[in-house]
Specification:
242 residues; alpha+beta; Chorismate lyase; 2 domains; 8 helices; transcription regulation
């Protein structure tokens, strides 16, 4: 993604001395113009650089280089939610169907809920925003029934996250997101919709959205063909003592 490329460029500039400790980085607008990206992309890149302990950002003071070596900790919680928003704004949502479901043992295990729990399931297909509408992933969203009945008529084909629609309509905001990644097999209608052969390997990403009371109100299960998704994260060596 563009913001990770920009983050890499800024990190390299700081660690190699292009920007010295105490220097002020160009403004978000200037960086957006320089690298021909949006300000949203610039903010996401700066989130990464700040998480590495290289910069501080303060209103009126701007973005200041505070270190030329990365810290031994990296917090990515807020950036993760921003990543999802960025992804959702660059893909199309096609609603395939809405239904009330009762979790059997298999679904309950997948959603980490009790068997017999009821959910409103919104089934969708995510596609690229290109002329062909290339399919990216199959998405089953399980919504708290009380919330689901209110937002289901408001979920059109288009961009954006269900969590944003829920926040705007019901006022429930995301406090935390738990993400689980595992292997799966793509079969049936899912294979047909994703334009892959039945039985091919896939990647299943389950995200549990929790409100301020730590109660799950939305669970999404996203299934990608193996060649459509790559998960990348950085690891940094902790400084040695002495």
């Amino acid at each position: 993604m563009r913001y990770t490329e920009l983050a890499n460029t800024l990190v390299k500039g700081i660690t190699e001395g292009k920007f010295a400790v105490g220097d002020q980085l160009p403004s978000e607008l200037a960086l957006a113009d320089q690298y021909d990206v949006s300000r949203t992309t610039v903010r996401a890149a700066l989130d990464i650089v700040e998480g590495l302990g290289l910069i501080t950002r303060r209103r009126r003071a701007g973005t200041i280089v505070c270190s030329n070596t990365t810290s031994n900790t990296y917090t990515k919680s807020v950036n993760t939610i921003e990543d999802l928003v960025n992804y959702a704004s660059h893909t199309e949502r096609e609603v395939l169907g809405v239904a009330n479901v009762v979790a059997d043992e298999r679904l309950a295990a997948a959603l980490e809920c009790k068997p017999g729990a009821t959910w409103l399931r919104i089934r969708m297909l995510r596609t690229e925003m290109d002329s062909e509408g290339t399919p990216l992933c199959w998405n089953d969203a399980y919504v708290d029934p009380d919330i689901g009945q209110r937002i289901a008529p408001l979920v059109p084909n288009g961009t954006g996250l269900l969590s944003q629609i829920i926040e705007q309509t019901v006022g429930v905001t995301v406090a935390d997101i738990k993400q689980t990644i595992g292997a799966t097999t793509i079969t049936g209608e899912m294979a047909r919709r994703l334009l892959v052969e039945p039985g091919v390997a896939g990647l299943e990403i389950t995200r549990t959205y929790l409100d301020d009371a730590k109660k799950p109100f939305l669970i999404t299960v996203n299934t990608y063909p193996a060649d459509k998704f790559r998960f990348t994260f950085w690891m940094h060596r902790a400084p040695t003592s002495g």
